[in-house]
Write a structure and sequence with these properties.
Oligomer: heterodimer
Strand content of chain A: 25-35%
Number of domains of chain A: 2
Structural class of chain A: alpha/beta
Number of domains of chain B: 1
Shape of chain A: elongated
Number of helices of chain B: 12
Largest sheet of chain A: 6 strands, mixed
Order of helices and strands of chain A: EEEHEEHEHHHEHEHEEHEEEHEH
Structural class of chain B: mainly alpha
Strand order of the largest sheet of chain A: 6-7-8-3-9-10
CATH class of the largest domain in chain A: Alpha Beta
Number of strands of chain B: 0
Radius of gyration of chain B: 18 Å
Largest sheet of chain B: none
Largest interface: A-B, 28 and 23 residues
Strand content of chain B: under 5%
Number of strands of chain A: 14
CATH architecture of the largest domain in chain A: 3-Layer(aba) Sandwich
Helix content of chain A: 25-40%
Chain lengths: ~300, ~240
């Protein structure tokens, strides 16, 4: 049984398709990332899968249960960190934790034990009696993750969890995501941060204009954009390299060439530089980043 | 279910009701309205206290409950709640419970004022039952006001004030039902507050316009109607809030 199975799920708002016949599955114990620009449909997808809104068409099952007909059972196995931190600002961190524990029917003593453990783990136990409105954004987000974990969920939905956070808070949250991976929890992570997604996720879905453009592992995605490697060169002068057989892209002061045969490219570049009296300031071969994949795929889907 | 309802109610009490201005407004607003009517007239306290109790319970039970849904929509906390295993019915039950506790407790203040002024309560059991039933009825009415799926509290305030103020004037508080013209009696019979006012007059003054079983049945029917409508309309409105 897959943790999440989605088939042809769609949702429109005022006649505009926010999610357009999306299909994918998330394996149990997997960290599944969803990348997409603003307005691509990431948050709407999360809201549908977490039972906040209903899809217009299609179907989705979470831990084998239908998200429309069995919504309450689905919610029992989920923890959610939404896009916008939404703890009760006029309640203390402790009261927020206990509220969520009560809504998951966790007995009081067990709820207190879990809340204590989580707040200590996220470094906010000392501030448990402070109202959330006095928290920094990073502390509030750490509280959001604590609230999502208090029910010990089988699946955790993290909607852009490190967006706009300070380095320390983002680090604490990333560290916890890595631990979830070890605990074999299923994580559904949406993010703008390609490095984060590339680092954690077993597979990544790229969504644009409400459509799932592709789903694959970060490694496979990197090999899918015109070659498996990128040769990057920096010369002492800006020159026209269009006479070369391959087509370099200008990236800042550098030129980048995607190729499956880097040795040929390096040989040509060295020959070109020697012939034109240019100095090679740096030359390196690297795997394309997930950002390259994203730009390429999103660019392609935008053209369609 | 019951522990979740209590958790929602406790959150409402801490977030919205346990605030000085809310408590003071719940007592002061009906009191000032009452004084505006009372000052300069020679009316017996036994006539005035049932009206003050009626206004207090009506205003307190409908003061905060209509604001919770738009507030929580605006603050995105509604999304937090609804992503937990909680139904709309549980949310509504919790909101009504908090409003019920607030309305029932604050209504003790004008009763205490009446006792301090030497007004005796002839039927305390009837009064207590009427207070509890009408606190529930008006709390459900308050929830009904917040069914339009807006995040603008001011819109809901306007709607609730548009209904609440006329209701005060047609419910036998300032002019007893028996002194109204026949069309006034018909209009008064449409207001649930009329039946509570009638029961309060019976409990304190010893007489009522309607038989008291009619008052109780009317309050019960209005409670069921408001609750049913609130649940149905909130269930329909919820997806439009996100």
């Amino acid at each position: 049984m897959e943790a999440i199975e989605v088939k042809g799920m769609s949702k429109s708002f005022n006649g505009i398709k926010a999610v357009d016949s999306v299909s994918f599955s998330v394996h149990r114990g997997e960290i599944f990332g969803v990348l997409g620009p603003n307005g691509a449909g990431k948050t709407t997808t999360v809201r549908m899968l977490t039972g906040v809104i209903k899809p217009d068409s299609g179907e989705a099952r979470v831990m084998g249960r239908d998200i429309v007909s069995d919504t309450q059972k689905v919610k029992e196995v989920l923890g959610v960190v939404p896009e916008t931190a939404n703890a009760y600002l006029d309640l203390t961190a402790w009261r927020n934790m206990m509220l969520i524990a009560s809504l998951y029917n966790i007995p009081r003593r067990e709820g207190e034990r879990r809340a204590t453990t989580l707040l200590k783990e996220f470094g906010i136990y000392e501030r448990r009696s402070s109202k959330v409105k006095s928290f920094s954004k990073g502390m509030e987000q750490r509280l959001m993750l604590s609230m999502a974990l208090v029910s010990d969920p089988e699946i955790l939905f993290l909607d852009d969890p490190t967006s706009g956070l300070d380095v320390q808070s983002a680090g604490v949250i990333r560290q916890r995501i890595k631990e979830l991976q070890k605990e074999k929890k299923t994580v559904f992570l949406t993010s703008h941060n390609m490095q984060e997604v590339g680092e954690f996720c077993d597979r990544v879905g790229i969504i644009n204009h409400g459509k799932m453009v592709t789903v694959d592992s970060p490694e496979h995605l990197r090999t899918r954009i015109g070659g498996s490697l990128a040769v990057e060169v920096k010369l002492d002068k800006a020159v026209d390299m269009s006479m070369l057989d391959f087509h370099p892209e200008r990236v800042g002061d550098n030129y980048r060439i995607y190729t499956t045969e880097p040795h040929e490219v390096i040989r040509s570049i060295v020959g070109f530089a020697t012939l034109n009296g240019l100095k090679i300031l740096s030359l390196n071969v690297q795997s394309p980043s997930l950002e390259d994949v994203f730009v390429k795929l999103i660019g392609g889907s935008n053209e369609q | 279910m019951s522990s979740k309802v209590w958790a929602i109610a406790k959150k409402d009490i801490l977030m919205y009701y346990f605030k000085g201005p809310v408590v003071i407004f719940g007592v002061l607003f009906p009191l000032f309205l009452f004084l505006a009517f009372y000052i300069g007239r020679k009316l017996p306290a036994a006539f005035l206290i049932p009206g003050l109790v009626a206004m207090t319970i009506f205003f307190t039970s409908t003061s905060v409950s209509p604001m919770i849904m738009p507030w929580e929509t605006q603050m995105k906390t509604l999304e937090r709640l609804i992503s937990c295993p909680v139904t709309v019915r549980t949310l509504i039950a919790g909101d009504i419970l908090a409003s019920f506790i607030f309305g029932a407790c604050i209504s003790a203040v004008p009763v205490a004022v009446g006792v301090a002024l030497g007004v005796g309560v002839k039927s305390p059991v009837i009064l207590a039952t009427a207070v509890l039933l009408s606190a529930f009825c008006f709390s459900s009415l308050g929830l009904l006001f917040s069914t339009p799926p807006t995040s603008l509290v001011s819109n809901i305030m306007m709607l609730s004030m548009f209904v609440k103020f006329p209701v005060i004037f047609i419910s036998g508080i300032f002019i007893p039902v028996e002194q109204m013209p026949s069309w006034g009696v018909v209009v008064a019979s449409l207001s649930p507050l009329t039946y509570f006012t009638d029961l309060a007059r019976f409990s304190i003054q010893g007489y009522a316009y309607y038989p008291i079983y009619v008052d109780f049945i009317a309050l019960f029917v209005y409670s069921a109607l408001f609750l049913l409508l609130a649940v149905k309309l909130h269930e329909r409105a919820l997806p439009k809030r996100f």
